[in-house]
Structures are given as C-alpha cells and as structure tokens.
Design a protein that fits this description.
alpha/beta; Glutaredoxin; 5-stranded mixed β-sheet; two-stranded antiparallel sheet; 5 helices; about 30% helix; thioredoxin-dependent peroxiredoxin; Thioredoxin-like_sf; Thioredoxin_domain
C-alpha cells in the first residue's frame, strides 16, 4: 500500500471506450482510484454498482472515479454496459499501474495465480495520496469514501 502524503504514480491507460487517461490530466480535482480483481464477478460487481448508485454524490463533490483492473478494454465495455456504470474503467493488462499502486498480489502455484487486490486511493487535486483503503468491503466502500470527503 502506498503511503499518504506521497505523489500518486502517473498512468496512461485506456478506458472502456479505448480513450487514454493520464492521472496528471486530472490535476485540480480529487480522484478516486479503486483497484479490483475482475469484471463481472460478485464482489467486483457489488463494489461497482454501489459506487454507481452513489455516483451523483461523487460528482457533486468533484470526485473523478477510476476503476482499474487487468481486464481488457472489451471486458470493461461489457461490464460498464451491463451494469450502466457511469464512471471510467481503465484497463491495465500489463499490470504496471497495478504494481505501481501496490495492488498486485502474487499467489502460489501457476502463473495464473497473480491477481489484483481490492484497494483504493483518494488523490488530492495536486496529485498527492490523501487516503488509502487497504481493506475494502465492496458493499460499504462507496459510502466510506463519501463520508471521508464530506459528501
């Protein structure tokens, strides 16, 4: 987990529509970066849908939301359409941003045992990590973040 007070690592990743996003392009606003294991699985769907249900509150508080996993752009597109997700999903199949944010977890055994931890970061308008969330409960996480930002 990255420490609060540190500059958030920049990234350049495609979203569910293939558009590239760089963290530095969002300076001047608060950014929520949440990492999740896989599109359209029970916990990940619960977390995404809960954020979607509260998305108006994120917008009212000026928070840009990025969900990041190693799934490809097409998978993100299907996931976003299926659940009407109003926020941006970023694809990191090379897992570099996942590693940069210490959300990579190596399991034992086969090469397929590498997965993404469910961890989130709240980034200040000047690009500094102001809060990390290492123990995410998919059902309550969105509310926890909104409480922290005063929303």
């Amino acid at each position: 987990m990255l420490e609060t007070g540190k500059t958030a690592p920049d990234f350049s990743l495609p979203d569910q529509d293939g558009e590239i996003h760089n963290l530095t392009n969002y300076r001047g606003q608060v950014v929520l970066i949440y990492f999740y294991p896989m599109d359209d699985t029970p916990g990940c769907t619960k977390e995404a849908c809960t954020i979607a249900e509260m998305y108006d509150d994120f917008e009212k508080n000026g928070v840009k939301v990025f969900g990041i996993s190693a799934d490809d752009v097409a998978s993100h597109k299907r996931f976003a359409l299926k659940y009407h997700l109003p926020f941006t999903l970023l694809s990191d199949p090379e897992r570099q941003t996942i590693k940069d944010y210490e959300a990579n977890e190596e399991g034992e055994g086969t090469e397929h045992s590498t997965h993404t931890k469910r961890i989130s970061y709240l980034v200040s308008p000047n690009g500094v990590i102001i809060r990390s969330y290492p123990d995410v409960d998919p059902a309550t996480h969105a509310g926890e973040i909104l409480k922290d930002i005063g929303g």
